[in-house]
Amino acid sequence: MPESAKTSVFRSVCAAACLGLAAVAATAGTATAKNYNVCGGSPGGLWSLLGAGLDQAVGAAEPGSTVTYQTSSGGYANIVQVTQGKCELGIIHVGEGISAQKGREPFKEPVEGFKVLMVLYDWAPMQWVVSKEFADEHGLTSLADLKEKKPPLRLVLNRRGILPSQLAEADLENVGISLDDIDEWGGKVEFQGSKNASEIMQNRRADMWVNATFVGSSSIRNIADAYPVTLLSVPEDVVEKMVEDYGAKPFTVKAGDYPWLDRDVTTHAARAALVVDENMSDEEAYTLTKAVLDNVGKIQAVHNSMKDFTPELMQSLEALPYHPGAQKAYDEAGN
Protein backbone atom coordinates (compact mmCIF):
# COMPACT_ATOMS: atom_id res chain seq x y z
CA MET A 1 0.00 0.00 0.00
CA PRO A 2 1.43 3.41 -0.89
CA GLU A 3 2.70 5.40 2.08
CA SER A 4 0.08 8.10 1.48
CA ALA A 5 -2.68 5.48 1.49
CA LYS A 6 -1.32 3.95 4.69
CA THR A 7 -1.32 7.38 6.30
CA SER A 8 -4.88 8.01 5.17
CA VAL A 9 -6.08 4.69 6.60
CA PHE A 10 -4.21 5.32 9.87
CA ARG A 11 -5.82 8.73 10.23
CA SER A 12 -9.25 7.27 9.52
CA VAL A 13 -8.77 4.56 12.14
CA CYS A 14 -7.57 7.13 14.69
CA ALA A 15 -10.51 9.41 13.95
CA ALA A 16 -12.95 6.55 14.37
CA ALA A 17 -11.29 5.52 17.62
CA CYS A 18 -11.40 9.05 18.95
CA LEU A 19 -15.06 9.36 18.07
CA GLY A 20 -15.71 6.07 19.80
CA LEU A 21 -13.93 7.20 22.95
CA ALA A 22 -15.84 10.47 22.90
CA ALA A 23 -19.09 8.56 22.58
CA VAL A 24 -18.15 6.32 25.49
CA ALA A 25 -17.21 9.36 27.59
CA ALA A 26 -20.46 11.08 26.70
CA THR A 27 -22.42 7.97 27.59
CA ALA A 28 -20.58 7.68 30.89
CA GLY A 29 -21.23 11.34 31.65
CA THR A 30 -24.90 10.87 30.92
CA ALA A 31 -25.02 7.77 33.08
CA THR A 32 -23.61 9.60 36.10
CA ALA A 33 -25.70 12.74 35.61
CA LYS A 34 -28.40 13.19 38.23
CA ASN A 35 -31.52 15.33 38.28
CA TYR A 36 -32.52 16.59 41.73
CA ASN A 37 -35.68 18.33 42.87
CA VAL A 38 -35.29 20.91 45.64
CA CYS A 39 -38.43 21.85 47.55
CA GLY A 40 -38.36 25.53 48.48
CA GLY A 41 -41.07 28.13 49.05
CA SER A 42 -43.03 30.51 46.89
CA PRO A 43 -41.81 31.31 43.36
CA GLY A 44 -39.68 34.41 42.97
CA GLY A 45 -38.36 34.58 46.54
CA LEU A 46 -34.83 34.08 47.83
CA TRP A 47 -35.33 30.34 48.19
CA SER A 48 -36.05 30.05 44.48
CA LEU A 49 -32.82 31.97 43.79
CA LEU A 50 -30.97 29.57 46.07
CA GLY A 51 -32.43 26.73 44.04
CA ALA A 52 -30.95 28.31 40.91
CA GLY A 53 -27.59 28.71 42.64
CA LEU A 54 -27.59 25.06 43.69
CA ASP A 55 -28.36 24.10 40.10
CA GLN A 56 -25.37 26.10 38.85
CA ALA A 57 -23.03 24.71 41.52
CA VAL A 58 -24.02 21.10 40.94
CA GLY A 59 -23.94 21.53 37.15
CA ALA A 60 -20.45 23.03 37.31
CA ALA A 61 -19.15 20.15 39.42
CA GLU A 62 -21.09 17.35 37.69
CA PRO A 63 -21.78 18.31 34.04
CA GLY A 64 -25.23 17.14 33.00
CA SER A 65 -26.59 17.09 36.56
CA THR A 66 -29.36 19.55 37.41
CA VAL A 67 -31.29 20.88 40.40
CA THR A 68 -34.89 21.83 39.66
CA TYR A 69 -36.70 24.19 42.02
CA GLN A 70 -40.14 23.07 43.18
CA THR A 71 -42.53 25.51 44.84
CA SER A 72 -43.88 24.56 48.24
CA SER A 73 -45.72 25.98 51.23
CA GLY A 74 -42.45 26.18 53.17
CA GLY A 75 -40.03 24.37 55.41
CA TYR A 76 -42.51 22.27 57.37
CA ALA A 77 -43.92 20.84 54.16
CA ASN A 78 -40.40 20.35 52.80
CA ILE A 79 -39.41 18.13 55.72
CA VAL A 80 -42.35 15.86 54.92
CA GLN A 81 -41.59 15.97 51.17
CA VAL A 82 -37.97 14.96 51.73
CA THR A 83 -38.71 12.15 54.18
CA GLN A 84 -41.40 10.79 51.84
CA GLY A 85 -39.04 10.82 48.86
CA LYS A 86 -40.98 13.45 46.90
CA CYS A 87 -37.98 15.80 46.83
CA GLU A 88 -34.33 14.83 47.10
CA LEU A 89 -33.44 18.22 48.62
CA GLY A 90 -35.40 20.56 50.85
CA ILE A 91 -34.81 24.10 52.13
CA ILE A 92 -36.00 24.60 55.69
CA HIS A 93 -35.58 26.96 58.61
CA VAL A 94 -33.53 25.40 61.38
CA GLY A 95 -36.36 26.14 63.83
CA GLU A 96 -38.68 24.06 61.66
CA GLY A 97 -36.25 21.16 61.78
CA ILE A 98 -36.03 21.36 65.56
CA SER A 99 -39.83 21.49 65.82
CA ALA A 100 -40.02 18.38 63.64
CA GLN A 101 -37.55 16.49 65.82
CA LYS A 102 -39.41 17.51 68.98
CA GLY A 103 -42.84 16.75 67.54
CA ARG A 104 -44.07 20.33 68.04
CA GLU A 105 -46.89 21.79 65.97
CA PRO A 106 -47.67 21.26 63.14
CA PHE A 107 -46.25 17.76 63.68
CA LYS A 108 -48.16 15.29 65.81
CA GLU A 109 -45.08 13.21 66.64
CA PRO A 110 -41.29 13.53 66.26
CA VAL A 111 -39.87 13.36 62.72
CA GLU A 112 -36.22 12.34 62.47
CA GLY A 113 -35.74 10.99 58.94
CA PHE A 114 -33.77 13.93 57.57
CA LYS A 115 -30.17 15.17 57.77
CA VAL A 116 -28.46 18.48 57.02
CA LEU A 117 -26.15 19.03 54.06
CA MET A 118 -25.36 22.69 54.71
CA VAL A 119 -26.45 25.95 56.30
CA LEU A 120 -27.56 28.43 53.64
CA TYR A 121 -27.82 31.62 55.73
CA ASP A 122 -28.14 32.71 59.35
CA TRP A 123 -28.88 36.43 59.02
CA ALA A 124 -32.67 36.76 58.83
CA PRO A 125 -33.41 38.59 62.11
CA MET A 126 -36.78 38.95 63.78
CA GLN A 127 -37.51 42.65 63.30
CA TRP A 128 -40.21 44.18 65.48
CA VAL A 129 -41.12 47.26 63.42
CA VAL A 130 -43.25 49.83 65.23
CA SER A 131 -44.57 53.29 64.46
CA LYS A 132 -42.18 55.75 66.12
CA GLU A 133 -45.12 57.87 67.17
CA PHE A 134 -46.71 54.90 68.93
CA ALA A 135 -43.38 53.87 70.51
CA ASP A 136 -42.70 57.39 71.79
CA GLU A 137 -46.25 57.79 73.09
CA HIS A 138 -46.07 54.61 75.16
CA GLY A 139 -42.36 54.61 76.03
CA LEU A 140 -41.45 51.48 74.07
CA THR A 141 -37.88 50.48 73.25
CA SER A 142 -38.04 46.76 74.08
CA LEU A 143 -40.59 43.95 73.94
CA ALA A 144 -40.40 43.88 77.72
CA ASP A 145 -41.92 47.39 77.77
CA LEU A 146 -45.13 46.01 76.27
CA LYS A 147 -45.82 43.95 79.38
CA GLU A 148 -45.28 46.96 81.65
CA LYS A 149 -47.10 49.60 79.57
CA LYS A 150 -49.97 47.42 78.20
CA PRO A 151 -50.67 49.74 75.23
CA PRO A 152 -53.68 49.26 72.89
CA LEU A 153 -51.45 47.67 70.28
CA ARG A 154 -52.60 46.75 66.77
CA LEU A 155 -50.15 43.97 65.91
CA VAL A 156 -49.69 42.16 62.60
CA LEU A 157 -48.00 38.75 62.61
CA ASN A 158 -47.13 36.55 59.67
CA ARG A 159 -49.47 33.78 58.51
CA ARG A 160 -50.48 31.27 61.15
CA GLY A 161 -48.68 27.95 61.13
CA ILE A 162 -45.37 29.15 59.69
CA LEU A 163 -42.17 29.73 61.59
CA PRO A 164 -42.04 33.58 61.71
CA SER A 165 -45.45 33.81 63.40
CA GLN A 166 -44.49 31.01 65.79
CA LEU A 167 -41.27 32.81 66.66
CA ALA A 168 -43.21 36.02 67.28
CA GLU A 169 -45.65 34.30 69.63
CA ALA A 170 -42.74 32.61 71.42
CA ASP A 171 -40.97 35.97 71.85
CA LEU A 172 -44.10 37.43 73.42
CA GLU A 173 -44.68 34.39 75.63
CA ASN A 174 -41.09 34.59 76.86
CA VAL A 175 -41.67 38.14 78.10
CA GLY A 176 -44.96 37.06 79.68
CA ILE A 177 -47.45 38.26 77.04
CA SER A 178 -50.19 36.23 75.37
CA LEU A 179 -52.20 37.25 72.32
CA ASP A 180 -55.26 37.37 74.59
CA ASP A 181 -53.45 39.94 76.75
CA ILE A 182 -53.15 42.24 73.74
CA ASP A 183 -56.90 41.96 73.13
CA GLU A 184 -57.55 42.75 76.81
CA TRP A 185 -55.42 45.90 76.53
CA GLY A 186 -57.77 47.16 73.82
CA GLY A 187 -55.52 46.11 70.98
CA LYS A 188 -55.86 43.63 68.13
CA VAL A 189 -53.77 40.86 66.56
CA GLU A 190 -54.10 39.75 62.96
CA PHE A 191 -52.19 37.28 60.80
CA GLN A 192 -51.17 38.27 57.27
CA GLY A 193 -48.64 37.36 54.61
CA SER A 194 -45.62 39.65 54.31
CA LYS A 195 -46.95 41.72 51.39
CA ASN A 196 -50.35 42.36 52.99
CA ALA A 197 -48.79 43.06 56.37
CA SER A 198 -46.47 45.68 54.90
CA GLU A 199 -49.38 47.38 53.15
CA ILE A 200 -51.44 47.35 56.35
CA MET A 201 -48.58 49.06 58.16
CA GLN A 202 -48.07 51.56 55.35
CA ASN A 203 -51.76 52.49 55.53
CA ARG A 204 -51.48 52.97 59.32
CA ARG A 205 -54.01 50.23 60.05
CA ALA A 206 -51.52 48.62 62.44
CA ASP A 207 -48.95 49.93 64.91
CA MET A 208 -46.45 47.06 64.79
CA TRP A 209 -45.36 44.26 62.48
CA VAL A 210 -42.77 41.57 63.00
CA ASN A 211 -41.11 39.22 60.55
CA ALA A 212 -37.91 37.20 60.16
CA THR A 213 -36.40 39.04 57.21
CA PHE A 214 -33.08 40.43 56.05
CA VAL A 215 -31.93 43.85 57.21
CA GLY A 216 -32.91 46.38 54.54
CA SER A 217 -35.85 44.35 53.25
CA SER A 218 -38.11 46.18 50.81
CA SER A 219 -41.15 45.54 53.03
CA ILE A 220 -39.59 47.48 55.92
CA ARG A 221 -38.22 50.18 53.61
CA ASN A 222 -41.71 50.74 52.19
CA ILE A 223 -43.18 51.17 55.67
CA ALA A 224 -40.42 53.59 56.66
CA ASP A 225 -41.05 55.60 53.49
CA ALA A 226 -44.68 56.09 54.59
CA TYR A 227 -43.94 57.44 58.09
CA PRO A 228 -41.29 57.30 60.85
CA VAL A 229 -40.70 53.88 62.41
CA THR A 230 -38.27 52.23 64.80
CA LEU A 231 -37.39 48.74 66.04
CA LEU A 232 -37.98 47.18 69.44
CA SER A 233 -35.20 45.10 70.95
CA VAL A 234 -35.67 41.54 72.20
CA PRO A 235 -34.38 41.06 75.79
CA GLU A 236 -31.19 39.02 76.03
CA ASP A 237 -32.77 36.30 78.19
CA VAL A 238 -35.46 35.87 75.53
CA VAL A 239 -32.80 35.64 72.80
CA GLU A 240 -31.06 32.90 74.81
CA LYS A 241 -34.33 30.99 75.10
CA MET A 242 -34.96 31.25 71.36
CA VAL A 243 -31.45 29.94 70.65
CA GLU A 244 -32.19 26.97 72.89
CA ASP A 245 -35.73 26.26 71.65
CA TYR A 246 -35.48 27.13 67.94
CA GLY A 247 -31.80 27.07 67.05
CA ALA A 248 -31.87 30.83 66.47
CA LYS A 249 -28.71 32.92 66.30
CA PRO A 250 -28.18 36.04 68.44
CA PHE A 251 -28.22 39.05 66.15
CA THR A 252 -27.76 42.80 66.45
CA VAL A 253 -29.31 45.26 64.01
CA LYS A 254 -26.76 48.03 64.25
CA ALA A 255 -27.34 51.75 64.44
CA GLY A 256 -27.18 53.05 60.88
CA ASP A 257 -28.24 49.78 59.27
CA TYR A 258 -31.35 51.81 58.50
CA PRO A 259 -31.06 55.59 58.07
CA TRP A 260 -33.67 56.06 60.79
CA LEU A 261 -32.12 53.66 63.36
CA ASP A 262 -29.93 55.52 65.87
CA ARG A 263 -29.20 52.67 68.33
CA ASP A 264 -28.19 49.02 68.29
CA VAL A 265 -31.15 46.62 68.59
CA THR A 266 -30.70 43.11 69.97
CA THR A 267 -32.77 40.29 68.50
CA HIS A 268 -32.32 36.77 67.10
CA ALA A 269 -32.03 35.53 63.53
CA ALA A 270 -33.65 32.60 61.76
CA ARG A 271 -31.31 30.25 59.91
CA ALA A 272 -31.97 28.23 56.76
CA ALA A 273 -30.49 24.85 55.87
CA LEU A 274 -30.51 22.35 53.03
CA VAL A 275 -31.68 18.89 54.12
CA VAL A 276 -31.97 15.44 52.57
CA ASP A 277 -33.49 12.11 53.51
CA GLU A 278 -31.26 10.26 55.97
CA ASN A 279 -31.22 7.29 53.58
CA MET A 280 -29.47 9.22 50.81
CA SER A 281 -26.21 7.42 50.10
CA ASP A 282 -23.04 8.82 51.63
CA GLU A 283 -21.56 9.12 48.14
CA GLU A 284 -24.44 11.24 46.85
CA ALA A 285 -24.50 13.50 49.92
CA TYR A 286 -20.74 13.91 49.63
CA THR A 287 -20.95 14.77 45.93
CA LEU A 288 -23.65 17.42 46.47
CA THR A 289 -21.85 19.03 49.40
CA LYS A 290 -18.49 19.07 47.62
CA ALA A 291 -20.13 20.58 44.53
CA VAL A 292 -21.18 23.60 46.60
CA LEU A 293 -17.89 23.76 48.51
CA ASP A 294 -16.08 23.95 45.16
CA ASN A 295 -18.52 26.53 43.75
CA VAL A 296 -19.36 28.83 46.66
CA GLY A 297 -19.40 31.79 44.29
CA LYS A 298 -22.40 30.36 42.47
CA ILE A 299 -24.46 30.70 45.67
CA GLN A 300 -23.03 34.11 46.56
CA ALA A 301 -24.00 35.42 43.13
CA VAL A 302 -27.75 34.70 43.37
CA HIS A 303 -28.47 37.83 45.45
CA ASN A 304 -26.48 40.49 47.26
CA SER A 305 -27.88 39.21 50.56
CA MET A 306 -25.89 35.98 50.02
CA LYS A 307 -22.45 37.61 49.85
CA ASP A 308 -21.50 36.17 53.26
CA PHE A 309 -22.14 32.56 52.24
CA THR A 310 -18.94 30.61 53.00
CA PRO A 311 -17.71 27.04 53.59
CA GLU A 312 -17.47 27.91 57.29
CA LEU A 313 -21.14 28.92 57.35
CA MET A 314 -22.16 25.72 55.55
CA GLN A 315 -20.97 23.54 58.41
CA SER A 316 -21.74 25.87 61.35
CA LEU A 317 -24.89 24.14 62.61
CA GLU A 318 -24.96 22.23 65.88
CA ALA A 319 -28.70 22.04 66.54
CA LEU A 320 -29.39 19.41 63.84
CA PRO A 321 -27.26 16.44 62.65
CA TYR A 322 -25.33 16.50 59.37
CA HIS A 323 -25.45 13.67 56.86
CA PRO A 324 -22.27 11.54 57.13
CA GLY A 325 -21.53 12.13 53.44
CA ALA A 326 -21.67 15.89 53.94
CA GLN A 327 -19.44 15.65 57.00
CA LYS A 328 -16.91 13.67 54.95
CA ALA A 329 -16.78 16.51 52.39
CA TYR A 330 -16.13 19.06 55.13
CA ASP A 331 -13.47 16.89 56.78
CA GLU A 332 -11.65 16.42 53.47
CA ALA A 333 -11.78 20.16 52.76
CA GLY A 334 -10.14 20.79 56.12
CA ASN A 335 -12.83 23.30 57.18
From TrEMBL:
<dbReference type="InterPro" id="IPR011852">
    <property type="entry name" value="TRAP_TAXI"/>
</dbReference>
<feature type="signal peptide">
    <location>
        <begin position="1"/>
        <end position="33"/>
    </location>
</feature>
<protein>
    <submittedName>
        <fullName>TAXI family TRAP transporter solute-binding subunit</fullName>
    </submittedName>
</protein>
<keyword id="KW-0732">Signal</keyword>
<dbReference type="Pfam" id="PF16868">
    <property type="entry name" value="NMT1_3"/>
</dbReference>
